[in-house]
Amino acid sequence: MKKQTAVEFLAEKYNYITWLRNRDEISAGTADEWRAKFLKEAKEMEKEQIVKAHLHGLIHVFDNPITASDDYYNDTFVGTI
User: Fold this and answer.
1) What is the predicted pLDDT for the residue at 79?
2) Percentage of residues in the chain with pLDDT exceeding 70?
3) Are the C-beta atoms of 68 and 52 separated by less than 8 Å?
4) What is the pLDDT of residues 43-56, one digit of tens each?
5) C-alpha to C-alpha distances, 23 to 9, 44, 56, 70, nearest whole angstrom
6) pTM above 0.85, yes or no
7) What is the C-alpha separation between 73 and 78, in angstroms, rounded?
8) What is each CA distance from 44 to 4, 23, 28, 41, 53, in whole angstroms?
9) How far apart are CA 76 and CA 66, in angstroms?
10) What are the residue ranges spanned by the domains of the chain?
11) What is the mean pLDDT of residues 28-51?
């Protein structure tokens, strides 16, 4: 199973919050709290993803430096949308 990027995660959560707000199922204050919470989570995800990508690059730097980063991204994230 492919992982979500931090941006995909955040977009999904923000769209859900917007959907709930449009249906008046949550208050504006709750929506703001959730947005702040999900933004924090997305930043943590992004940091973890960057660290993993960097480590992957260090390990595979001699394999094929031209395609190693593209291969990592495609293997890890492509197909999640």
Assistant:
1) 67
2) 86
3) no
4) 999 999 999 888 88
5) 22, 30, 44, 41
6) no
7) 7
8) 13, 30, 24, 5, 14
9) 17
10) 6-76
11) 96
